[in-house]
Design a protein that fits this description.
It is a single chain. By secondary structure, the chain is of the alpha/beta class. Helix 4 packs across helix 5. The chain has 3 domains: 159 residues, Rossmann fold (3-Layer(aba) Sandwich); 133 residues, Argininosuccinate synthetase, chain A, domain 2, CATH 3.90.1260; 41 residues, no CATH class. The protein is built from 14 helices and 14 strands. Strand 2, helix 2 and strand 3 form a beta-alpha-beta unit.
Amino acid sequence: MKKKIVLAYSGGLDTTVIIPWLKENYDCDIVAVCVDVGQEADWNTITQRALDTGALSCYVADVKQQYVEEYVWPTLKANACYEDKYLLGTSTARPLIAKVLVEYARREGAVAIAHGATGKGNDQVRFDLGIMAFAPDLEIIAPWRIWDIKSREEEIEYLEKRRIPVPMKKADSYSRDDNLWHISHEGLELEDPATEPSLGTMLKMTVPPEQAPDTPVYVAVEFEQGIPVGVNGIKLGGVELIRTLNKIGGAHGVGIVDLVENRVVGMKSRGVYETPGGSILYYAHQEIEHVCLDRQTYAFKQQVAQKMGELIYGGLWFTPLREALTALVDSTQKTVTGTVRLKLYKGSIRSAGVNAPYSLYNASIASFATGELYNHADAKGFIRLYGLPILVRSLMERAAGGAT
């Protein structure tokens, strides 16, 4: 019996090439595993493509709900973001995909796991670290790190020589990753940072802001302990909630990011990201935290958000630090409950009101009118003590100046 290799299979260009390449270079059977994290895909067609290309079998693992509840929501609750812009769409999905691959490798008795991440990208780090976390004994095969193919054009040529249908149009050869949370685009004109992206032909989920409706739309997002649970008064599960907001945000040009980022491997790369629903949720979550968290907690969470973003981007999901930070974040979300109303207009998001039962905003204190809970005269003593170091230094400098 031949040994088995489990392949992370998407049905795209890279993995379509990898199946015959593995069969040509390894004496093995290929078990293709498609991990459904909400990407738009015809799984029946993709499964048949894997079999036609030489896979022994092909499985589709539907983990959308797990993806949202165990990966997206913890990231959202932390407000984790990479380099101020990227909402970690691909980064949050890769650890789960790696975990699922290991599960199938164990079930199939495979000796190795293969993936199509390139030797220049971040995903190789995320896949490898995720696999290592659960299966340090399995070999990891990343063809892009060892084969002679150097470009997507050569991949297309490889398939054409073997009379294998190319699963894409040559004129639309962006390198894309999509899931429930986002769509990323790389390649073609994006490889020149001085060139404006061709949004009209590139975008899949979102309209360019210029083409969005001339009338704004209001959307209300309901949270319970930091987790989104409803949109516009309707309770929704996580998967349907994100899909609903993707549709609303996408129609109004929300959530398009053009970013030149620092990859884990040390180089800069450019990508365009579509995250319409995610952008709405991040904005709404921050708005409700502004009224529900005290100053020190909010300030420390900002530091946690940056660190979480770095860890997730770098493939370090399955680490003690990430788990500890998630536990800390969860403890801050107990009062993050209520409804945030937002106004969407031609790519922009603006707050239109927050209603939270645990709000720390108290009108009798904040109002310019004098209230019972706040005595204006108390401010003088507070400011003197708060500014005591400034006062002492000023006195010292004056005395020193007088001495000379």
